[in-house]
Design a protein that fits this description.
It contains 9 helices and 4 strands, in the order βαβββαααααααα. It has 228 residues and is of the alpha+beta class. It binds glutathione.
Length: 228
């Protein structure tokens, strides 16, 4: 039976979720086939069996796994003979630093820039839900966030500097080949570039070349435009 991954979709089908991208890269890393099921914010009933209300949700035979980190741990445990997502045990701990930086610094910097753009791109039936939950989350209206975009872009550029410095000297965050550390950061930047109403990165930005290498490592070239 084919594995299924519930994957957040915009109105035009673009798959922009950073957490879903991580999960897709982890499945590719393990060499596992899967199909994605486009999911909207308000399709809570479709993933109710996972016992929570967010995607990604992986359905692998009888196993239903939610939360991208739980999915990575599940894949590592269930498919131990496929290439490891973390490397040796200490490397998992290092990946947790990358996860903490991604979610604590990079995601907030990206969110401050793209929240209004996301709303525009959502299925109309998702838009009121998104506006209400995100305005409560950020304690600002989407219009206030849009007005503050120039400042937010400046913060994002500063946040990315250490990553760019790293990528000037090595091909992947994990070194010679990508692993979960790359997947975590890739998910965030893929989210940013797929959903931003205007380009956030120059074509010659080091992070763009690295994103190309990550996709190429899994034979996923061509996926970046559609986001599927
Ligand atoms: N900790 C979860 C976070 C997943 C998450 O926040 N997913 C978002 C999409 S990017 C979602 O499904 N949100 C549903 C909602 O806000 O109602 C993970 O790592 O998978």
């Amino acid at each position: 039976m084919t594995r299924k991954l519930y994957d957040l979709a915009a109105a035009d089908g673009t798959r922009f979720s950073p957490f879903c991208w991580r999960a897709k890269l982890a499945l590719a890393h393990k060499g596992l086939d899967y199909e994605t099921i486009p999911w909207r914010f308000t399709d809570k009933a479709a993933i109710a069996a996972s016992g929570q209300d967010k995607v990604p949700v992986l359905v692998d035979g009888a196993n239903i796994v939610s939360d991208s980190q739980m999915i990575a741990d599940y894949l590592e445990r269930s498919y131990p003979n496929a290439p490891s997502l973390y490397g040796e045990p200490p490397a998992r701990a290092l990946c947790m630093f990358v996860k903490s930086w991604t979610e604590g610094a990079l995601h907030p910097a990206i969110a401050a820039v793209v929240m209004p753009d996301i709303c525009e791109r959502l299925d109309p039936r998702d838009q009121p839900y998104f506006r209400q939950t995100r305005e409560a989350m950020f304690k600002r209206s989407l219009e206030e966030m849009a007005a503050a975009r120039p400042e937010a872009e400046k913060t994002l550029r500063a946040t990315l500097k250490p990553l760019q410095r790293l990528l000037a000297g090595q091909d992947f965050i994990a070194g010679e080949a990508p692993n979960w550390a790359d997947h975590l950061v890739f998910g965030a930047l893929q989210w940013a570039r797929l959903i931003s109403a205007k380009p956030l990165f120059a074509p010659d930005d080091l992070v763009i070349a690295w994103m190309g290498r990550v996709l190429a490592a899994y034979g996923l070239e061509g996926e970046e435009a559609r986001g599927a």
